[in-house]
Amino acid sequence: MSLMDYNTDLKRRNPPHLRLREIELLIISAQDLKNVKHVTKMRAYAVVYFQKGVHVAKTHVDEHGCTNPAWNEVVKVRFKEDLPESDVMAALNVDIYARGHVREKTVGSARVLLCDVLKGGDASEPLDNPIQCITVQVWRPSGRPHGLLNLWVPPTGRFLIRRDSLSFSVKETVEDEEKEEEEEEEVEKNKVVGYVPVELEN
Known about the structure:
This protein is of the alpha+beta class and 202 residues long. Helix content is 19%, strand content 32%. It is built from 3 helices and 8 strands, in the order H-E-E-E-E-E-E-H-E-E-H.
């Protein structure tokens, strides 16, 4: 089989409309949502998707925030690679629900155009890629605005530097790299002199 035939066969087995792209989003919080629970406390969670039939991601349920839930959760969302960013119908959707014993109640929905989510960015220069903080309107099923949603989107679609906290600085990164270099130099020095560290028994 020639290279051209192989590529043609590969495209046939993995057509563009079946290949998926994945990006990461930090769903931070919502505020001033409609309280859809009148007897029990509202426990909200978010469902995130570009194409509901392709992939859906969910946050955990906030047990305490009620109408001002805080999730601070990174979710990964997949969508078809050939989804055009310029299409006005191509959007990130965040549906917010209230957990119930019998059924889930819809609190509201927010929508961000795909072209506004993906801002480009250079993966080789992560420190030059500020995380994009977005605040969008939450809409009730009736079409009325009620509440706001806060989320962060990395310009490249990935949180390129991972931390326990997403609040990092250039100084922290430089200090980490210097520490790693010192440790590597110590290991190389021990190899040269033939030193093998052992634990002494008491």
